[in-house]
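We include the entry.

. . .
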Amino acid sequence: MKNKIIQSTFLLLIGGFITKVLGLWIRILMNRTVGIDGVSLYTLILPTFTLFITLGQIGLPIALSRLVALRTKNNQSLYFSILPVLFLFNLFLSLFIFLMAPIIGVVFLRQESAVLAIRAIAFVIPFTSLSAVFRSYFFGKEKMVPHVLSNILENLIRLCLIFFLAPRLSSYSLDILVFFLVIMNVISEGCSCLFLFIFLPKRFHLNRLSIQKNDFKDVFSVAIPNLSSDLFSSITYFIEPIFVTNLFLLFDFSHDFILKNYGIIHGYIFPILFLPSFFTSSISQAILPSFTRYYSSYQYSNIKKLLLGISFLFFFFGIFYYFILSFFGKQLLLFFYHTTLGYPYLIFLAFFFPFYYIQAPFYVLLHSMGKTSYLLVLSILSFLIKMISLLLFLLFSFGIYAYLFSFVCVILFTDFFFFYKIYHDLSL
């Protein structure tokens, strides 16, 4: 068991590192091609993209991973029971996105140039949903090679598309450029789906018994609570830029100032701060099946050892990364974006991010324990705390740092309630 966890973690770390490097290269090329205006527009529609990705998956990946890991189901009937539902739902969702794009772009985001890129999301969503469902099988089986290789392939295709095609599109309008950045996911996600399909078991046959009503109920009894928590987080992510923009406007900040700084924070600073996520997410994904089995067999002491060990590892890794940013933060910004804009924001947030990095294993454990309703409540409270703290810090004239302080408040609040819930429920 321990050897399998170590092997899975090692594969995910290597794959995550390669994927992160490719992702950074993609971002560098993207920023240099579309410039600060393009980055700001892409950052603005990214919450919309995330919201519809969450909706398209209907909470299925984690639900399927749990059921496959428990080995209580026939995997063939399990997947054939939900794939038709997934296909139909994504078809209707794509149609909805395409028709609602003008309202989302013009009315909600106040950017007419975002409409074309939002319509591109409609074509991407079915591929991201299918890819996530395929990956869920391999996570449940603790077979990480297909997942790692598909991620690398996906990012290589994106990199090639940006490298060869983006410069040829640079003479076009900004909305065409951002449309291209979104629509290229159709090709990359489609290739990822085909690649994952190659690794799926081939000894299956489709008949009446392949679709089981009980399988359908079991999957969605887990998936819907998962979706409710993730969906609320995506909705708050979607409405956050709308709320933040209007709140700053209320305090007499100019629209250009808000858009520029919001773009710097989300387009330049957060990608650097989230860079270690390949490390934290890879390990957390690798231990999800172990958490599930330990919890189902009441091996709480094993959960304690695994959770505490990984949490301390992530925290000290975060401290190490903070010192790297303290000494080389400007050089990293110059290397990635050819600018030092946002350096003070980077150093300020990096001090608190070790507390953010430790959240990944707690989040995975709560999912494996079936505590999705708690995660939903926590998402609601986190959003309220972020908006209330933002308002308070603006009242005390903190300027753009009011937004950064509100983000820090959410990190610390979430840590506290993660610790409280797990230690209370498991009596650790």
Summary: The two ends are 22 Å apart (CA to CA).
